[in-house]
Amino acid sequence: MTYLLDIAMNEYADIRETYDRLPLESEGISNINNFESLSYHMHEKYTPEAYRAYMEGIYIHKLQRRFDRFGESIHDTDNIYHYILAEFLGSV
Predict the structure, then answer these.
(1) DSSP secondary structure of 55-75
(2) Which residues contact 42 (CB under 8 A, 6 or more apart)?
(3) Is residue 81 within 8 Å of residue 42, measured between CB atoms?
(4) How far is it, in rounded angstroms, from Cα 17 to Cα 82?
(5) For residues 89 and 73, what is the distance between their CA atoms, to the nearest angstrom?
(6) Is the model's pTM score more than 0.70?
(7) Angstrom distances, CA of residue 1 to CA of 31, 54, 67, 78, 82
(8) Residue 90 predicted with pLDDT over 90
(9) pLDDT in tens, 9-34
(10) What is the Cα–Cα distance from 34 to 62, expressed in whole angstroms?
């Protein structure tokens, strides 16, 4: 768990309640025990099916700001990372 999430859960009861309702297991790849799984696939080519598989079952994902391990593929505009930027920040 990240420090920021830990602080928020201790400070705000509604955040703690929401977190506590997250599934321990899910049919998808991600669950509360593996909520950083999406961060290991940011460089992969975006397809709705792949994205749905990573998002299924949980809506909190720990993403990292450092993508050194992906090399140049993180700059490909058709990957999951750029899809998230375009979808939620309106930029690519």
Answers:
(1) HTT-S-----S--GGGGGGGG
(2) 63, 67, 70, 74, 79, 80, 81, 84
(3) yes
(4) 31
(5) 20
(6) no
(7) 13, 18, 19, 29, 25
(8) no
(9) 889 998 888 777 766 555 555 445 55
(10) 9
Residues 6+ apart with CB under 8 A from 9: 15, 16, 19
Phi, psi (rounded to 5 degrees) for 79: -95, 175
Q: Please answer whether residues 77 and 92 qualify as being in contact, where contact means their C-beta atoms are separated by less than 8 angstroms.
A: yes
CA angle in degrees (0–180, nearest 5) for 85-90-91: 60
Question: Is 44 in a helix, a strand, or coil?
Answer: coil
Q: Identify which of 87, 21, 86 has the alpha carbon closest to the alpha carbon of residue 60.
A: 21
